[in-house]
Amino acid sequence: EADIYQTPRYLVIGTGKKITLECSQTMGHDKMYWYQQDPGMELHLIHYSYGVNSTEKGDLSSESTVSRIRTEHFPLTLESARPSHTSQYLCASSELQGNTGELFFGEGSRLTVL
Amino acid sequence: SQQGEEDPQALSIQEGENATMNCSYKTSINNLQWYRQNSGRGLVHLILIRSNEREKHSGRLRVTLDTSKKSSSLLITASRAADTASYFCATETSGSRLTFGEGTQLTVNP
To answer: Is B101 an interface residue toward A (CB < 8 Å)?
Structure first.
């Protein structure tokens, strides 16, 4: 069982609202990631971080932003949600050593914007 | 286009049969990983095979890697209804980032 937690699991909000998806891990991992996944589709990397104060854009352009003030915490924020942001957001972490390693995933946050 | 593409997109078999899923990729990799995802849940790591390895086993799972063909296969032997899930391959290139394929939806009928 991975020690990585996402909240909320499900969120339904109206257009224009600001939302923050929380992700925390207790494994002391330096690397953390956010993936976006539509139902039945592949995962797209939208943000990643290699440590505190390090954040990078992923392969898929996203209007969301992230921060990494603490090793264990990697929240994702949407300043003004739109229906096009409706998706599942998956947070993951891995160890920093070398360039290989498995990703540990949270259970996901399913966002619906009306 | 995606670095990893999987085949088939969907597979339906009977309990006890073997399931084979394939993954092809385009560029050189450091390693290839397979993950499982139950509906509506996060992904769970199954197995990692490095670029200098050709085959790896873990329980009922067998993974092969052919770097000359840029392809990998995941075999699940003696499948169970509980194996029903989506299976994704993920390739790691330079930069320590994983790129996921589109996944294979496996249904194992009791």
So the answer is: yes
